[in-house]
Amino acid sequence: MLSFFKSKPHLKDLISEGFIDIHSHLLPGIDDGAKTIKETIHLTKAFQDMGFSQFTTTPHISHYIWNNSPETITENHKKTKLLLEENNLEIPFRAAAEYLMDDSFENYFKEKKLLTLKDNYVLVEMSYLNAPIQLYKTLFDLQVAGYIPVLAHPERYTFYHKNFSEYEKLKKAGCLFQLNLLSTVGYYGERIAKITEELLKKGMYDFAGTDVHNMKHIASFSNKIKINSVSNLKEVIANNHFFKR
Ligand SMILES: [Fe+2]
Fold it and tell me: How far from 81 is each of 75, 87, 206, CA to CA, in Å?
């Protein structure tokens, strides 16, 4: 049969058994993710049901909005781990953070040790409104301090959409890219799905993450992908194996 109209796969079917997620907001009451332990349990169970083998959850750390610290996150993680075990959820999970690169970040990482995804890999994000003025200096200094920046969801920074060369510049500046998987089903809109396709085609993504905050996100993994670069996407998903511990 001709396959011109071959229908696209569902996102969850592309996620290989044993997937290791590196970006989510599952710790209860600590950011805009899970609000209660009950929500944490539902979300963790969903991860387990989708076949994830382990995950690192990444609460926001941003000076002005989510003033979390390694101490509050570690404490919350410890308590949550026990409660999940009591509920027969044995999936191994760690806690790191998603750091907002705002004007206080530079002083922050010079004074404090950052929570990392693995070794010196640190998950960073920026505002959806504009890039920080000192972005390239921050990225440079972060690397001088010994870290490798993994930029969360580059496709979601719409201010780069009409200036694609900025993505190339970021990669040259040593930034790794983490794709938000839900971008491939159009969860954040058509324009973001289109840029996702372009970044995938050009092989610019290094890793993938769910960025799950709630059950609505989980439900959207049942949607069909809107992009064509299926093999590139599968490759990016497989790259997360790097984070196996
Ligand atoms: Fe996030």
Answer: 10, 10, 29
